Amino acid sequence: MAAFLLRQKIVTFLFSSLNILVTNILVTNILPLNEMLGNTNNTETSSRMNIYLIISGVLSAIAAILHLSCIYFGASWYRFFGAGEEMALMAEQGSSHPTLVTLGIFSILSIWSLYAFSAAGLIFRLPLLRTALIIITSVYIIRGIAGFALIDMPMGRSPEFWLWSSIICLTFGVFHAIGLKKHWSTL
Q: Which of 105, 137, 138, 147 is spaced 20 to 30 Å from 115 by Cα?
């Protein structure tokens, strides 16, 4: 029971932090007050923004939140999102393994979201921005393509999991690639 309460507190804290970060980015950068009032002379901010990278950041943030939600809601969410029966059973038994693995994925996706927002000009410039975006884009695309090969040998997951997760990863990768190409000279 104590492990469950600790997990709930960690998830609540991380979810609140991510929510504050995304809200802050949206309010201070995408919907600036002067543009809402009709003043669109803010060319510096708008020329740095890249809608494809903004969408990429939002998609990665949503994926991160969904992973965090799996920790919070438990085995039924692990099953629904295709993590496999073994992972769901471990979550039901109170094992810390699903939580740690999912927190790791959450952390990676959150960092990837920040890199997309940074490249889009929504937050401060992160180190190794160009290199990180190349790696992130490559991982999404390679994972998307590789997943199609795993449909016939699902390794504890359903063929539907591999199909849908591959489509999702490829979509994320394409948005990153387009955003990266459009913003290449300024990275």
A: 147
Query: Are the C-beta atoms of residues 79 and 85 closer than 8 Å to each other?
Result: yes
**Residue among 184, 171, 187 nearest 58 (CA):** 171
Mean pLDDT, the chain cut into blocks of 10 residues (187 residues total): 54 57 53 45 54 94 94 91 88 92 96 95 92 96 92 79 91 94 85
- Are 158 and 95 spatial neighbours (Cβ–Cβ below 8 Å)? no
CA distance 108 to 26: 21
Task: Encode pLDDT of 108-155 as tens digits.
Answer: 999 999 999 999 989 999 999 999 999 999 999 999 999 888 888 877
Please report, for residues 22, 115, 119, the alpha-carbon distance to residue 54 in angstroms, rounded to integers and kept in the order given: 11, 10, 9
Which residues does 13 contact at the CB level (< 8 Å), separation at least 6?
A: none
Residue type, 129: L
Report pTM: 0.74
Task: Return the residue matching tokens 């063929």.
Answer: 159
Half-sphere exposure of 174 (CA within 13 A, CB side): 8
